[in-house]
Specification:
alpha+beta, four-stranded antiparallel sheet
């Protein structure tokens, strides 16, 4: 018996001493049989609070499930990007020089087409396609990396046009045109994230005319480094040292309103909480960042981290982003394989995910897309796409936001109350109820909920409305009080003065009589 106990303890110690990648996985099995990873939010004080899982894994799409092992024996190899158009999921199977088109209806998925060449183009085949985009007319754009072009074809794969290296003097002609990520707006304008380009996104008109750059990153530098370089280095040392230059973006996504959401992974980690790093940006037509940030901290992913030293440490590095309905956006962290959801005000909805080699975890997450509220995460090492579907808790968060946007404030408040029953420590539920009943002119009630959410801005707005309503309701009494405050002292003063005058008059008569 003692030997069995010792053997059991030794096995337990061996399991506990597994690799960091396995130790990093925080996994559980819910009552419905779906495996989910650790989910959390941050409270007002910035403390991490565990919360119900907003998503669960419903399926994993890979070479075997798509039947690619039967198609020339070519399995997915080092894919780099996903794109969703309608119910079709496009996969950039980069190292196989092809695009996979998969139809997904929420339950079943089917490989419908393998796109490996363009009819009428020269060259006709792809060379490391990094990204895909599809416009409203179902024209397909491919960032054909080592063919130095973005090629456009119709839905039948016939060549239409290509976007190539600009000949404009503002483009450094010594650089190859290496398109990594692309986005197309409703007017057919193309935006390209090119390798080694730090001036922002390259912009083309629909007729392939290069029209400049948009959204250039600001130059970032350390003041101490600048002073040292400016005043203490020789000219030769300055020439040999790296120059201060804008950094490159990591990815981009165009929402249904034509705004570009961009992620940036090159920054000083100490600039994150002061909002100097801006790892997520929303760019308007002029390239200005108009992302709303009404939370205590800007949307940066994890609020706490260990200084960089290995791949599992350091701050969140957001490698991709996708935008859902009502300006809710989700960003993908390549550092620890996590997903972060934010509402239109920049307030965190939830965070979940981890690194590892089990279902729902990632080895090297590289791309993120959505179909409805379902999320698709591409792993470039595992060569697979994990599909996440909202849980009841996650769907209620979306429904509460949806009801508020369409003006169903009573229903929105009811759903937020249901969310609170599942997660009593959810600040956004307090804020959501407060916003809903504020629209119903219940200012005092809204103030209570905003106070519980530590939402000073909305509390101040509710208080101003409450004060205005109170004044309007009590205006008669206010005037009466003011009148009393003003008139009574005047009357008292007049009475005192009259008494004084009478007294002085009497004293004067007495003096005259005595004289």
């Amino acid at each position: 018996m003692m030997k069995k106990t010792i053997s059991f303890l030794l096995i337990l110690l061996m399991l506990l001493s597994l690799s960091p990648a396995m130790a990093d996985v925080s996994y559980s099995m819910k009552d419905d049989g779906f495996s989910t990873s650790y989910s959390y939010i941050y409270d007002y004080w910035g403390d991490e609070q565990e919360c119900p899982d907003p998503y669960r894994v419903t399926t994993v799409i890979d070479s075997m499930t798509l039947g690619l092992d039967k198609l020339e024996g070519k399995r997915i190899s080092r894919p780099q990007s996903l794109f969703v158009h309608g119910n079709d999921l496009y996969i950039a199977d980069t190292f196989n020089n092809r695009i996979l088109q998969v139809h997904y209806d929420g339950r079943d998925y089917t490989l419908t087409r393998v796109i490996s060449q363009v009819n009428g183009a020269e060259p006709a085949t792809f060379n490391n396609p990094y990204d895909i985009a599809v416009d409203d007319e179902e024209n397909i754009y491919v960032a054909d990396y080592f063919n130095y072009r973005v090629v456009m074809m119709d839905k039948d794969l016939n060549f239409i046009k290509e976007f190539v290296k600009p000949t404009d003097s503002t483009y450094d002609q010594a650089l190859d045109f290496l398109p990594k990520k692309i986005a197309v707006d409703v007017a057919g304008r193309l935006y390209v994230l090119g390798a080694n380009i730090n001036k922002g996104f390259i912009k083309y008109e629909a007729d392939t005319t290069f029209t400049g750059y948009i959204g250039a990153n600001a130059v970032t530098f350390n003041m101490g480094e600048y002073i040292w370089k400016r005043y203490f280095m020789t000219q030769e040392q300055r020439d040999a040292s790296p120059s201060f230059a804008p950094t490159e973006y990591e990815n981009l996504y165009m929402d249904d309103k034509g705004f570009i959401y961009a992620t940036n992974t090159i920054f000083s980690e100490w600039d994150l909480k002061t909002d100097k790093a801006k790892p997520i940006r929303r760019l308007n037509g002029l390239g200005n960042d108009i992302l709303i940030k009404n939370d205590r901290y800007p949307p940066i992913g994890d609020l706490y981290w260990v200084e960089e030293g290995t791949q599992y440490y350091g701050p969140t590095r957001l490698t991709d982003i996708t935008v859902l309905r009502n300006d809710i956006y989700v960003a993908l962290d390549r550092t620890r394989g996590r997903l972060f959801g934010y509402d239109s005000q920049g307030i965190m909805l939830w965070a979940f995910g981890t690194r590892g080699n089990v279902e729902g975890a990632f080895t090297s997450a590289i791309s993120l897309e959505h179909m409805g509220y379902d999320l698709f995460v591409l792993d470039q090492v595992e060569n697979s796409i994990t599909v996440f579907t909202p849980t009841e808790y996650g769907q209620m968060i979306y429904d509460a936001n949806e009801m508020y946007v369409i003006g169903e404030y009573d229903r929105s408040a009811e759903i937020w109350e249901d969310v609170m029953r599942m997660n009593a420590n959810y600040p956004l539920a307090f804020r959501g109820i407060g916003r809903a009943i504020l629209r119903q002119d219940d200012y005092e009630g809204a103030m209570r909920y905003f106070e519980m959410a530590h939402d000073r801005e909305n509390y101040g707005r509710a208080f101003k409305l409450y004060r205005k309503k109170w004044v309007e309701k009590n205006i008669l009494w206010v005037f009466l009080v003011i009148a009393v405050i003003i008139v009574v002292p005047l009357l008292i003063g007049r009475i005192k003065r009259s008494k004084w005058e009478v007294m002085m008059h009497e004293q004067s008569k007495v003096r005259r009589n005595n004289g």
